[in-house]
Write a structure and sequence with these properties.
Length: 109
């Protein structure tokens, strides 16, 4: 088992209505962001996800990417669209794209 150090930080969506089409939160929802500190020997890859507008979006992306075998940590930032994936070994980009698409109508680069 890999030991991860996690530091919590909060970010808030400020628009009136998130527009994600998935949650109906009406905007103003709080997004949870976590900073994952990778253990020695781990692989960390960074991507940009477009189309996220609320905490439901970040939670959905986090959940789907976390289910990829070998992934040990996921850090999604709503404001920047940043997606950091920590894993035991490099994860194929197409697998990341599939997981993000499964989460909703988002694109990853």
């Amino acid at each position: 088992m890999v030991d991860l150090s996690i530091k919590d930080a909060n970010a808030a969506a400020t628009s009136g209505g998130c527009g994600c089409g998935n949650c109906g939160c009406g905007g103003g929802a709080e997004a949870q962001a976590t900073e994952v500190v990778a253990p020695a020997g781990a692989t960390v890859a960074q991507y940009t996800v477009s189309g996220m507008t609320c905490s439901h979006c970040t939670n959905a992306v986090t959940e789907e990417v976390s289910e990829i075998p070998g992934v040990t940590g996921v850090d999604v930032d709503l404001d920047s669209g940043s997606l950091k994936v920590t894993s035991d070994a490099p994860i194929d980009f197409d697998r990341i794209v599939e997981a993000v698409a499964e989460a909703g109508d988002y694109t990853v680069s």
